[in-house]
Amino acid sequence: MTRAPSLIGLFVAPLNRAGIEYMVTGGLAAVVYGHPRLTLDVDLVIRLTPPGAFVFAALWPPDEFYCPPIEVIAEERQRPAHGHFNVIHAESAMRADVYFAGTDELNAWALQNRTLRQVEGEAVQFAPIEYVIVSKLRYFRMGGSERHLRDVARMMQISGPAVSRPTLDRWVTHLDLGDEWAKACAFEGRE
Q: What is the CB neighbour count within 10 angstroms for residue 126?
């Protein structure tokens, strides 16, 4: 019996083998820190050197994955903010949303403070919970999706004692996310 592909096996294990600096964030991190929910993609923040773009592209065999051309990866890598592309597994349609750390100070802080967890026998580098919460608040501000507030509320319910409130408060204040944080806190009672 063939084992179904997983986000960890498809997208994280190759990064570990290649020694690429990354952290898992987004929905998959929200699942680890909060309640389980379905997600068919993994959000990755990575840091690559120029030669690292070639190493990254070589990880995804073209008969199994869509990976953008090296020129696109290199161009996105050079953006100071919002550099992004996808890698897609053809058979399962599972996807990695790959973001470059760029010059974002929150990304820099989070990459220095990653959390290592064992998932499916793989050592996975997760963004710190404070980063995941602040990122979800940023996405809520940009798009208005209550899913981000729900994820924050669930993370606080399950992993609240692990959250460094001084760190979280510092980032919420620094990024002017007080209104979004208040909405997430008020969301805790709704479900």
A: 21
